[in-house]
Structure formats: C-alpha cells, structure tokens
Amino acid sequence: MASTASPIQALLSGPHSTFVSQGAEAKVYKSLLAATDFPTLLLRLEADNGENNVPIKLSKSDLKQARSVLGPSGLPSAESGERVPVFLKHRFTKGYRHPSLDGSLTKARVAGEAKAILKCSRAGVNVPGLRLIDAPAGILGLEWIEGNSVRRLLPDDSPEEDEHQLASETALQPTLSLEDYGLSIPGLMALIGAEIAKMHLADVIHGDLTTSNMMLRKHAGSTTSKPAQLILIDFGLSYVSGLVEDKAVDLYVLERAFASTHPEPENEIFDKDFNPEEANEEISPAVKSTLFTTMLAAYEKKVGEKQWAAIGKRLDDVRLRGRKRSMVG
C-alpha cells in the first residue's frame, strides 16, 4: 500500500513550487504559498513535535512564534490571492545507505539544522526564519531571503559550486552590487564579524563558514546608517559547542575560504587611506586592511576582550597545525 505524502511533501511537486538546484545532499525549491496553506502545514509542524522519533523538541514559545510568523495575520489575506516565497530544502533518499539508517540520519540532520536556526534566532543572530519542517520526509522550509550572497559581492577567483548560492542567485534574483546595498567592503566585513560573534556567543558552531553561506538583503525602509542586513545561512553541518577550539576552527575555515575564494592583494581590496569608520564599527586603525583581519576586528569587539584572548590564541594554534598539515601532506 502506497504511503500518502504529507502536505509538505506535496509542496515539492505542486504547481507553485519551482525546482532551483541540486547538490550532493539536497534539492532546493522555491515555493509560493498562500496564507490559507499555512494552517494545514502548521499542523504538520506540531505533529512532528516529538512524534515519530523526530529528534527535535519545539517549545511552546517556538510554536507560538511560528504561528505569529506563518499565521494569516502575518501574511497576505486569503482573499488577496497573494503568495509568500518559501525556501524548501529536501534531503532526498540516498540509495547507497540502508533505508533505516538513511531515515534516521535524514531526520537527525534536518532536526539538527532546525534546532541550530532556532537557537541562533533566540540569540538575535540574523538567520532565515523557520517556516516548515517535516523531518521524516527530510524537508526543511525556511524564509526566502531576497538578496545576494557575499561571494557574489566580493572579488571572486574560484568557480561557484554551492547549492544555496545557486538557489538564491539564478534568474529568480538579480545580482546587485555592494553600492546598491549602501555598503563598502570594510562595512561588509564588520557585519560579518559581528554576526559570527553573536553566533559563537550562543555556542553555535556553523561548520561551513564561507562567503557562499552569507547573504545580504536590504532593510525594508532602510536608512543610510543601517542599509543592509547580513544573514547567515546553511546550518546543515552546524552543532552546539562552547569549546574555544571549535570556535577557532570555525574561524579558520572562513579564513581558508577567504584565501581560496577571494585572494585579492590588499591594495586591490582597500584604498591606502582606508578609514575604519566606514565599517560602521570602531575598528582599530592598527588592524591590517585585509578582508579577514578586518572581519576579525569586528568579531573581537563583539565577543569581548576576555573571550577573544582565548579564541585568538587558539586560532593561532589552529593555523600552525594547518600549515604543518599542508607541508607534510
């Protein structure tokens, strides 16, 4: 007897969903949902709260927040016929794995990503809002971010290969420039540093910090002082840890990503008369004007002197281990 698809599964093949891209782990869709769709889908969100061995526990406050976001009061009225875009990530079945193992891994990874996003959201980190979750089916629905990845906005020296970048930056969304967002490169680095610091203060380790997994979007009715918002995305490899080592490794991954993806000489990244005030943060003029070091200055300011002393020292140790590994192969 064939199993009946859940309401969220049915979205993937529905008339208002568009297939965007496929990576090694998941397929990405953009789905346009009407306000009347959400009450039914919320039932699925609540039904998965602790049932079917789903390893995620949504608190009452989480469900209340979901209702406030997803309910008709926060969406276009049913009578208007308008639809809201949702980012759907479907972790499809892996034929090379035993079905029971595949099912348990898929549920755990979807739930883990959702929990990391919720934890970040509670801590004030800019992340996509959680919209839908069907862990048994491997589907996570997130707020659709109208914007561009940081990778697209900086000088890029490598081919793009990230599923989320493809998902958000096809013909569905035109690529803007940093100037369109009212930002300079130093200002962008300050936003990145502050956001990663907030995430680490919440003891969330991203696990895949690259410029492909950061997006910029314009503030609604933005002013020149706060022209754009930096959003961290793709928490598929994230986990919770308060260890200094894990936070240092997270930063080292980003440093390597900058070196490989944006290897521009300093004088091509910043003007010689670089003014730290452009970064919208108080960055010490003594900091060398490179992408990563400018980002670290904002990170240091946000986490505080005490935490940075430990993380910075461990980052130096991680770098040393990385260089040794590169030399010996």
Automatic annotation (TrEMBL):
SUPFAM superfamilies given in the database record: Protein kinase-like (PK-like)
Reaction(s) catalysed by this chain's protein: L-threonyl-[protein] + ATP = O-phospho-L-threonyl-[protein] + ADP + H(+); L-seryl-[protein] + ATP = O-phospho-L-seryl-[protein] + ADP + H(+)
This protein's UniProt keywords: ATP-binding, Kinase, Nucleotide-binding, Transferase
Top-level division of the source organism's lineage: Eukaryota
Enzyme class (EC, first level): transferase
Keyword field contains Nucleotide-binding: yes
One of the GO biological process terms: tRNA threonylcarbamoyladenosine metabolic process
GO molecular function, a single term: protein serine/threonine kinase activity
Gene3D superfamilies per UniProt: Phosphorylase Kinase, domain 1, Transferase(Phosphotransferase) domain 1
GO cellular-component term (any): cytosol
EC nos: 2.7.11.1
Stated family: Belongs to the protein kinase superfamily. BUD32 family.
Protein name stated in the entry: non-specific serine/threonine protein kinase
